[in-house]
Amino acid sequence: MVLHLPNEQPRVPPPFIKQYYSLLRETGVLPNFWVSPTYWAMSEMEKIESPCRSAVSLGWKEIAAFPPISLVSHKILQETVGKNGPEVMYSFPEVRPTDKDREVFVGFNYIYDPQEFIGLKGKRWSTLRTSISKWTRSNPNCVFYAGGCPNWDSKPSCLFLKEWQQNNSVSVSDFDIMIRYFVSIENVPNCGFLFQDQMQTELIGLVTWDWNWQFVNLRFCLHKDEPYLAEFLRWRFYVYIAGLQQHRLVNSGGDRICKPKKNINMNTNVKATLPIYSWKEE
Questions:
Q1: What share of the chain is helix, strand, coil (3-state, %, to 5)?
Q2: Distance (Å, rounded) from C-alpha 76 to C-alpha 33?
């Protein structure tokens, strides 16, 4: 298998992405997991014109990712969704289909408080504490870099991704997005790299994130299939985010995002859950 790498030139969001992001923030909605200019650019979203021609959305060809926003009133045109226009994939917690016959439940977005991962205090964190302890005892020399990586080179990430794809089921489009996140040099500050030792001889985990005005989005968390590694890698990510002192919660997505094969049993410790819906075509 040949791994096709993206152009490593900086991926600058097109003006229409910045426009929709600004309009969406102005509406005051709580953003879902898919709201991020970085994600929109990495997934190559396009501008979707509304049938009324005075509204805009983002998506891919005939599918809109989000409801249209009026360029005049700067409000979400909820009543026009799916009417003589593209299907809409994702709602917001405050904006969902008014016609219940067309409402389709997509899943939950799970929200975590990264500050709680620093101490892992209380009985509800006992399982995670035990898992982290078991991993560190078996792998005392592992090193986690985030926000930058000494002697960074895209080749270890490419080899890791190639091996990971062979062992996991993922669509071609989603895998292309993963490559852009982990291999694009401008996104390195938003990546975490877990090595087996300080010599960086073996990469065993990758994590990447992006932002919106409300949340940090845990975009992808990939790792080798080893006991307790999933728990350890996610814990290191949350502790790093807590250390940034941004005072933002983390949206880890839901059923649609890439997850470890084994249930890491963290959903009982969520700060909040955001229900997400889509609109069926009429």
A1: 35, 25, 45
A2: 18
Taking alpha carbons only, the member of 256, 63, 280, 278 closest to residue 177 is 256
Query: What is the C-alpha to C-alpha distance for residues 150 and 154, in angstroms, rounded to an integer?
Result: 12
List, for residues 51-73, the tens digit of each pLDDT value: 666 888 899 877 888 888 999 99
Q: CA-to-CA distance for 251 and 214, rounded, in angstroms?
A: 9
How do strand 46-49 and strand 55-60 relate by DSSP bridges?
A: antiparallel
Q: Are 58 and 66 in contact (CB under 8 A)?
A: yes
- Structural domain including 153 reads 110-275
pLDDT digits (tens, 9 = 90+) for 99-147: 767 778 888 899 999 999 998 988 889 989 999 999 999 999 999 999 8
Q: Are residues 266 and 249 in the same domain?
A: yes
- pLDDT tens by residue, 174-213: 889 999 999 888 888 999 999 999 888 899 999 999 999 9
- Report residue 46: phi and psi, to 5°: -115, 165
Q: How many domains does the chain have?
A: 2
Other C-beta atoms within 10 Å of 99: how many?
13
Q: Are residues 155 and 261 in the same domain?
A: yes
Q: What is the pTM of this model?
A: 0.88
